[in-house]
Amino acid sequence: MNKRKIINDPVYDGFLSVDDPVILSVIEHPFFQRQRRIKQLGLTYLVYPGAMHTRFSHMLGALNLMGRALETLKLKGVEISDEECRGAKLAILLHDIGHGPFSHTSEHAIVDVHHETLTLLMMERMRAEAESGEWRVESGADAAQALDTCVAIFKNEYPKHFLHQLVSSQLDMDRLDYLGRDSFFTGVSEGIVGTDRIISMLNVHNDELVVDEKGIYSVEKFIISRRLMYWQVYMHKTVIAADNVLLNILHRAREIGATSRSSALWPFMERFLTEKDFCGDPSLLDCFAELDDDDVMVAVKGWQHSDDEVLRTLCSQLVNRHLPAIRISNVPFEGVENDYFHGTGELHNRSYDFNDQEIKVLYKDGRCVDISEASDQLDRHFLEKQVTKYFNYYPKI
């Protein structure tokens, strides 16, 4: 008898339903369950207290949107098999599985490997476990085949290119979910987009994901919302200050060789304070899969009592939210200090990337043009402009 899971999701005002046995087994895998313990927005809760939602909820939300998008395309006559549907759903479900603690904040600081590389390693491990029987999945052969399709779609090696675009493009299910979800939990209304409208307007033309012409205004709103969310949430100056404190903590802990090894540290975190790359050692993947936000914060709280004054001070700042002051400028800062308590950096925000997979609009007469040509508000100059700002953080007086 088929199992069926009903999951409450406040973002979509109702329930998410999952009844595919392979997908349910993937959700129950320890690699995926770890996502419950990783915050979607890292340290953003220090600015927006409601931003406590997890990668787990985001990935389920993206799965929900993928299911709706695939049904929309099939109703419009696009040929998508059940196997391809399952593979695309798994690809979006697992697209963020390689993130480390606090999501993007700690990337390259704990492990010097891009999260997408780690995602692929985890997908491939799950596939091997399903095939060997090490992972008790309802149908190991079906799961292994589905994960093969999933990996091919994720890597853009599957013959139907539009399936990859649903997972990773400038109008994918990942972005559609995180904009609405992050807006909901931060209370920043600028991130609200017409998700239902956009999905209902999706189509496929010459193996490319496109938007029917009636969806132009919804896509315009989506592009502008994403730009605003970057300034107001993802690159909020206090979030940037907090991120740099955490990064400096991790760098300092590694620099002193964790000589202040606290009983608060789990063995797998100690290992990453001395080893940053995987060096072909498969046991490091298992070690990484144990790491989550809680491990880092337990370590940080323990290090408040370190013999090292720099580490002790930084950890106290983060735990008690005594964050450095920060200035944002349109020009670079010159002649400023750079140490564990002072620093500079750059922020980049671009609404649209013409070097990426462009958002195409399909007209009734068969013409298919880029959104910059179809829109009467978002011309190419506006879309391709990258705004660069500079920040300088320093101790508060």
Task: Describe the protein.
The chain is of the alpha+beta class and 397 residues long. Among the domains are: 5-187, Hypothetical protein af1432; 238-323, Growth Hormone, Chain: A (Up-down Bundle), CATH 1.20.1250. Helices cover 47% and strands 12% of the residues. It has helices spanning 21-28, 30-33, 55-75, 82-93, 115-132, 140-154, 161-167, 173-186, 195-200, 216-234, 237-255, 267-272, 283-288, 293-303, 309-319, 371-374, 380-384, and strands at residues 5-9, 14-18, 202-205, 208-212, 325-329, 343-350, 360-362, 368-370, 386-394. The strands form 3 sheets. It has a 4-stranded mixed beta sheet with strand order 3-4-7-8. Strands 5-9-6 form a 3-stranded antiparallel beta sheet. The chain has a two-stranded antiparallel sheet with strand order 1-2. A hairpin with a 4-residue loop joins strand 1 (5-9) and strand 2. Helix 3 (55-75) packs across helix 8, helix 4 (82-93) runs parallel beside helix 7 and helix 8 packs across helix 10 (216-234). It starts with a strand and ends with a strand. The relative contact order is 0.11. The mean pLDDT is 89.
User: Low-confidence segments, ≥5 residues, pLDDT <50?
Assistant: none
Strand order of the largest sheet: 3-4-7-8
The number of helices is 17
Multimer state:
single chain
Give the fraction of residues assigned to helices: 40-55%
CA-to-CA gap between the ends?
65 Å
Supply the CATH architecture of the domain at 5-187: Orthogonal Bundle
CATH class of the domain at 5-187: Mainly Alpha
User: Going by CATH, what is the homologous superfamily of the domain at 5-187?
Assistant: Hypothetical protein af1432
| Cα shape | globular
Structural class, by secondary structure, is alpha+beta
% residues in beta strands: 5-15%
Mean pLDDT: 89
**CATH T-level topology of the domain at 5-187:** Hypothetical protein af1432
Which series of helices and strands comes N to C? EEHHHHHHHHHEEHHHHHHEEEEHHE
How many beta strands in the DSSP annotation?
9
Largest sheet: 4 strands, mixed
Radius of gyration: 22 Å
